[in-house]
Amino acid sequence: MLKSVVVVGGGTSGWMTASYLTAAFGDRIKVTLVESARVGAIGVGEATFSTVRHFFEYLGLEEKDWMPKCNATYKLAIRFENWREEGHHFYHPFERQRVVDGFTLPDWWLRNPSSDRFDRDCFLVGTLCDSLKSPRHLDGTLFEGGLGERSMYRTTLTEQSTQFPYAYHFDATLVANFLRDYAVARGVRHVLDDVVDVALDDRGWISHVVTKEQGDLTGDLFIDCTGFRSLLLGKALEEPFESYQSSLPNDSAVALRVPLDMERKGLRPCTTATAQEAGWIWTIPLFDRIGTGYVYASEYSTPEQAEKRLREFVGPAAEDLEANHIKMRIGRSRRHWVNNCVAIGLSSGFVEPLESTGIFFIQHAIEQLVKHFPDARWDEGLRDSYNSLVNRCMDGVREFLVLHYYAAKRTDNQYWLDTKKRALPDGLAERLERWQTRLPDGESVYPHYHGFEAYSYVCMLLGLGGIELKPSAALGLLDPSSAQHEFKLVAEQASELERTLPTQYEYFAQFH
Ligand code: FAD
Fold first, then answer.
1. How many helices (H) and strands (E) does the chain have?
2. Confidence (pLDDT) at 156
3. How far apart, in whole angstroms, are the C-alpha atoms of residue 401 and residue 243?
4. How far is the CA of 346 from the centre of ligand 1 (A)?
5. What's the pTM?
6. For ligand 1, which residues put their CB under 6 angstroms from it?
7. 8 Å CB contact between 152 and 55
8. Partners of residue 195 on adjacent β-strands
9. Is the distance from CB of 153 to CB of 85 less than 8 angstroms?
10. 3-class SS at 425?
11. Which of 501, 482, 487, 455 shows the shortest CA–CA distance to 144?
12. Mean pLDDT over residues 364-375, rounded?
């Protein structure tokens, strides 16, 4: 059996990995985490997927244990602003589609739109976001009674069968600190030092890492969580990197942490992605501030232009704040597990944070590592299986993100015009053709697990507005009365929730 794991890097990926391994294996595996005091973590990465709750559940943590300590808030959707045209917005909610007479509500909506807001007509979450509502009542009950509360039973991403209606926003630094304390309290050895060398044996496997002041750290398995530097997998093992840049050109970001009076401003329960001249700006509301940043393509904007635009967007609150400029490596390693080294987090791959997938990739990788955990035989089949799952997951997300740009109606400058001209990843062109006559379903989206279901594709196509979609002809022959009833029900339920739910600020104020 393997006895020891060395995690190099103490950002979100390092501490998520160390805490999860401890929660999974207890003291049967010795975990050491080494992080540099000199090289900071990237410090962004504050919006998540609804599935991240499985991670916290696996660790045995309830929301009350960690959310107030990390200034966390709820995220019910992503709000896309100006992707179709200036002034337009729509939501990509964490909410599955209702089905009437074998057709989804968006199918019925496309046949006969009752307003120009598919997101409010077909889903509840659009209304809750517009009115800044919490998904929980003040007594803690969830707005969707049918889902109910679930006890902790350690599910993982690929086993989940319900769409939980929200994810979280949190302060990345506070979450890393919280997980560090969790992991150290459960026996993870924490070494604060620089790794200055990675020593390989004659087979090319890592024998130890050399630290500046505290000698060599030996282990059986090494996890590379060193961020974009990819010190172990990329540098020492020289695993090639496959860039996604040709289809996703945004390679830079500038970020600000903006303290704001959220009581006055209001806590919008979603991430906002506002389209810009050379990319888009994220706005992530935390309990005490917003996290914001401009993701852009350096081919179309200089860092100075991007920072100026971000400051204008934020307004006076941005004065005197220091901007964090980040160069992003977009794409993935050819393999993520090579010999006795597994890269997790930015060291393994990254796509721009448009759908908040960075932490999702980390969670997926950790869960799969536990499922594929090797023994002394180092079965090659395990490594191959792990690598292909992780590759497919990232390639699927790449495809979904390319769709955002290709299907956006906006074509008002060269940046947006060029988004329609780039070569599409394999399979997407064919799928797009199919979706024009039949909205995406489980059979027609990217076929491997990548975190997104058909309803996400449907929302993006209906919201972005750049692709002509034809309603299903069969709907003209069906009696629409049940669908009409369901639309009415959505509207009634939405206005009842709007009337009875507290605002998100009111909900969280009780814990602070
Ligand atoms: P890092 O945070 O870079 O950590 C690297 C660690 O390695 C540090 O602890 C450092 O000290 C250590 N290290 C480096 N060199 C050495 C050395 N020589 N010796 C010892 N230690 C060393 N994800 C989301 O899910 N949602 C989002 O909204 C989101 N937004 C993002 C926005 C931007 C602009 C970017 C770039 C990323 C975003 N991400 C997002 C991704 C997310 O930030 C990362 O996935 C997450 O923070 C994990 O980073 P990491 O731990 O892999 O790397």
1. 16, 23
2. 75
3. 15
4. 6
5. 0.97
6. 8-14, 34-36, 39, 41-42, 44-48, 172, 194-195, 225-227, 229, 231, 253, 255, 293, 326, 328, 345-347, 353, 356, 358-359, 362
7. no
8. 211
9. no
10. coil
11. 501
12. 97
